[in-house]
Design goal:
The chain is of the alpha+beta class. It has helices at about 1-25, 60-70, 150-155, and strands at about 80-90, 100-110, 115-120, 135-140.
Amino acid sequence: MRDLISSWKKAVLAAVTGAVLGLMTLAPGAQAANLLELNFWLSGPNYEGRLADCEAGLSTISSQFQDKESTFWNSALQITGFSRVHETAFRPWQSDNIPRRYCTADAMLTDGKMRQVHYSIIEDGGFAGYGQGVEWCVVGLDRDWAYNPRCRAAKR
């Protein structure tokens, strides 16, 4: 009985393999892209360079900082306020790059210390490229060293 089941399984496996190989030989070969598949009429990203002022990114920084500190570092540290908010650069590279507004501010934290925050507001830099995004770094609290040393990579 075992030999009958074993030979039946082998026959089914051989039939399935033969069918798959047969279908693969009948499939059309690879061809070059046709005229419509060559990115015809696609002009690429059209950046307008209209970015919000530096103050627009502060609420995002506060909420993301609190989330990052509590989730990853088990800390109750929060930003309580900002002062001396100013722009440091706008589109500092050639005009074909993604428009960014670089800013710096002083942030008061719940531990009583004033720390600098360097951040940029990025056109089409939000989730899935929708809306403006904010990248930021709090000097002295870049614990994962993403912008080290002293958040220099976040300045510009």
